[in-house]
């Protein structure tokens, strides 16, 4: 009689599972906070569905939802980039304190924005005494959380063992390094003006598809969007540059970075002049 031996069942290995493990391994705080923010989008969508209130022509819960998505992408991107930090960085005491502070700043931002949505009032540019106090603290928190990009740029730049192609490494470092100054330029102007709209109604009617940018005047949030995503667009071009011109050719990356700066400044100037971004769209 022949014995039948059952072969062990091998669990399938999925790319998403490997990616999740890798992100958690290299930067567990940013990864877990990013996933939590992504999960919070579900109850926020539910709140938007059941709460019929709006503020300045926009559903009360759209702004918290946008911030949850944006900050989730931000944290998960940093968790992905953390693989190229110098070995042992994540275990150093200063880094653990710093990364925890970044997560705490993001938590404060979300509590503040969601709280304002629940109260049916403005989080940003709220002229009330309480609103101005919270806005001041939120500004400090925003500076702290965005400071992670130049910190990562510095750490990755000084790591000789990233294994990245020279052009891609330069694109990654440049994109991270530019994110904070470009963001300060755009966010600082909005803070000084006390509004994001220039020359229009400031009401979210007839907006740019998906993004919600104003169409009847300039909107400083457009330049702010591209400023904060320098950490994505420039490294993405770096990948294309390696494929097109080879791993060691850095000139295309440098030219693209200069062009990207010029583009953000142009979009910013157009908004200040009261002109809508891509006026034929939306």
Automatic annotation (TrEMBL):
It comes from the Bacteria. The chain crosses the membrane at residues 30-49, 69-85, 97-121, 133-155, 167-187, 226-245, 257-278. Keywords: Membrane, Transmembrane, Transmembrane helix. This is Uncharacterized protein.
